TrEMBL record:
This is LacI family DNA-binding transcriptional regulator. The keyword Oxidoreductase does not apply. The lineage of its organism: Bacteria, Bacillati, Actinomycetota, Actinomycetes, Pseudonocardiales. The keyword Transcription applies. Pfam families: LacI, Peripla_BP_3. It comes from Pseudonocardia nematodicida. Signal peptide: none annotated. InterPro entries: HTH_LacI, LacI/GalR-like_sensor, Lambda_DNA-bd_dom_sf, Peripla_BP_I. Residues 2-57 form the HTH lacI-type domain. Keywords: DNA-binding, Transcription, Transcription regulation. CDD domains: HTH_LacI (cd01392), PBP1_LacI_sugar_binding-like (cd06267). GO terms for molecular function: DNA binding. PROSITE patterns: HTH_LACI_2.
Length: 325
């Protein structure tokens, strides 16, 4: 194995100078000397011993990220931003997907801590769970939660549909076992009542967060004797399933069924018709979480949230005219 001593000997410098070049500091190295060291590194095939470095510094230059489902656009985009931040700062991102299982999520977080990552970002399958157990893992754990966006975003979606003249507004969200779904149901019920209507339990449907189950749930909704004229959908993939069910049933969107989603990823913009949505600054939230976990010097749990959102009206609610005949 090629060592720094070998590089130093080949370049005619001290091992300290090799260290300054490899680590880009802390002291400056003259350009000509730096080039000799880099040439020796290339010729000898030298690679840094990251294990030895982590033993010296107590830092592994790695971070953990655990999300519920990598197949969903929101979590995929969040992961992309975290990974990009890791590349910019020289950190390796170790990734896990819990498949919406809290026990599996806990096992992944514990496993990452045992691998001595410098910190963990967690998008929990159950953001309302007791997180005190994570305080004892010996690493910083940053938990991302967006309760205000879930609640106020659902209110904003209902308000927007009422503004289009709808008074029969349904809801499709994730499984009943998801605490996030319970938040959304409560917000939907409050918003509907605020506009003088009674939330119809037949218009509140749950499904797994997939296109297929979103379509199947929408089929059930549209097959009712008195279906709603508009629906708020918890995720973009479910909303795409709703659009498919409406197409199959000959129900025109938005003329006979208006649709608005509360997730707002790129999928909403490029669906047919385009989906009106509550949009969230995923890149900003990811940057906040990464900065928090990178800057944390003490173990323990920190909650990170961003309350900003916008409502983007597109074709599926009638804000933008449909393209084509």
């Amino acid at each position: 194995m090629v060592t720094r001593n070998d590089v130093a000997k080949a370049a005619g410098v001290s091992t300290a100078v090799v260290s300054y070049v490899v680590n880009d500091g802390p002291r400056n190295v003259a350009p000509a000397t730096r080039e000799r060291v880099l040439e020796a590194i290339r010729d000898l095939g030298y690679r840094r011993d990251t294990v030895a470095r982590s033993l010296r510094t107590g830092r592994t230059q790695s971070l953990g990220l655990v999300v519920p489902d990598l197949s969903l656009p929101y979590f995929a985009e969040f992961t992309k931003h975290i990974n990009s931040a890791g590349e910019r700062t020289g950190r390796q991102i170790l990734l896990g997907a819990s498949d919406w299982s809290v026990p599996r999520e806990r096992a992944m977080v514990v496993g990452l801590a045992e691998r001595r990552v410098d910190g963990i970002v967690l998008l929990s399958a159950d953001p309302l769970q007791d997180l005190t157990e994570l305080d004892g893992l010996g690493v910083p754990v940053v938990v991302v939660d967006r309760p205000v966006v879930t609640t106020l975003g659902t209110h904003a979606a209902v308000d927007h549909l009422v503004g289009h003249g709808h008074d029969r507004i349904g809801l499709l969200c994730g499984p009943r076992t998801h605490r996030l779904s319970l938040r959304r149901v409560s917000a939907w019920e409050e918003a509907v009542r605020r506009h003088g209507s009674v939330p119809d339990p037949d218009w509140r449907l749950h499904s797994t967060i997939t296109r297929r189950d979103g379509r199947d749930a929408a089929r059930s909704l549209l097959g009712q004797a008195h279906p709603p004229s508009a629906v708020v959908v918890g995720s973009d993939v479910q909303a795409v399933g709703v659009l498919r069910a409406a197409y199959e049933a000959g129900v025109r969107v938005p003329h006979e069924l208006a649709v608005i989603t509360t997730e707002g990823t790129e999928l909403a913009e490029f669906s047919t018709p385009s989906l009106s949505s509550i949009t969230q600054p995923i890149d900003v939230v990811a940057a906040m979480a990464f900065t928090q976990v990178e800057d944390s010097t003490a173990p323990g749990v920190t909650l990170v949230s961003d309350d900003r959102f916008d409502l983007c009206g597109r074709e599926s609610c009638g804000c933008i005219p449909l393209i084509g005949p």
